[in-house]
Amino acid sequence: MDDKKLLIVGIDPGTTIGYAVLDIEGNLIHLNSSKQLDLSLLISETINFGKAVLVGTDKAKVPGLVEAFATKLGARIASPEEDLKVNEKRIMTSNFIFDNEHQGDALASALFAYKATKTLLDKIDFFAKENSLYDIKDRIKELVIAKRISIKNAISIIEKKEEEVLDEAQDQAKKIIGRANKIRDHSDEALNAAADKITAEEEQHL
Q1: How many CB atoms sit inside 10 A of residue 35's CB?
Q2: If I label 181, which of 8, 55, 86, 199 is the partner at 20 to 30 A Cα–Cα?
Q3: Is the dihedral of CA 114, 76, 20, 91 positive or negative?
Q4: Of 24-28, 103-107, 119-123, 150-154, where does mean pLDDT reach its minimum?
Q5: Could you give the angle at the alpha carbon of 98 between the alpha carbons of 92 and 104, nearest 5°?
Q6: CA-to-CA distance for 89 and 171, rounded, in angstroms?
Q7: CA distances from 6 to 65, 173, 203 (A)
Q8: Rounded distance, CA 199 to CA 203, Å?
Q9: Are residues 35 and 129 in contact, defined by beta-carbon separation less than 8 angstroms?
Q10: CA 17 to CA 32: how far, in whole Å?
Q11: Dist CA 140 CA 128 (whole Å)
Q12: What is the pLDDT of residues 34-90, one digit of tens each?
């Protein structure tokens, strides 16, 4: 895991593909649509903003593009039990400005995903605050959302990873110290040999 910003991405597939990018707090970061987009380009554009952990769709039957996007990025899909109605999407996106219905549907998909996961996100925020785990809060969210594991299991994985990193760093430090000691020993030997040689030469001149 890295420290990239966690993202929620809403996708509206079609001849013209629309996509919306939210941060994990539900704030809109980017909104776009184009007939030139395909899966590869969609991925390359969204990862510029961070790491997608949740992908939203407005369809009950998850579209192939959404499925492929989520699979490629290891993200979780949030889909409604029934297709979101036009009026529902209109209400959800009423406070935003967008250029066309593709962007509007993508935004509604992202907002739906955020709303569907907000209770869990709030629970993680509360747990992190209560247990002084604010510095790993987003890493917990990433594991809990994308890997569908419990908060406690996520913390265990993170702590184990940190221990492994620490152990590896300590091993590297020991190796460096060992090399330094060898270099010092060789230097001492060379100095002693040079001193012995000088002493021997001086004795020959006596």
Answers
A1: 9
A2: 199
A3: negative
A4: 150-154
A5: 45
A6: 55
A7: 20, 33, 76
A8: 6
A9: no
A10: 8
A11: 9
A12: 999 999 999 999 999 999 999 999 999 999 999 999 999 999 999 999 999 999 999
Note whether 66 and 13 are within 8 A (CB).
yes
Which residues, in sequence order, are CB contacts of 74 under 8 Å at separation 6+?
146
Q: What is the DSSP string of 176-199?
A: HHHHHHHHHHHHHHHHHHHHHHHH
Rounded distance, CA 191 to CA 176, Å?
A: 22
pTM higher than the cut 0.70: yes
The C-alpha atoms of residue 168 and residue 55 are separated, in whole angstroms, by 35
The two tokens of residue 70 are 């989520």
Phi-psi region of 21 (alpha: psi -120 to 50; beta: other; left: phi over 0): beta
102 membership: H or E segment, kind and range: helix 101-130
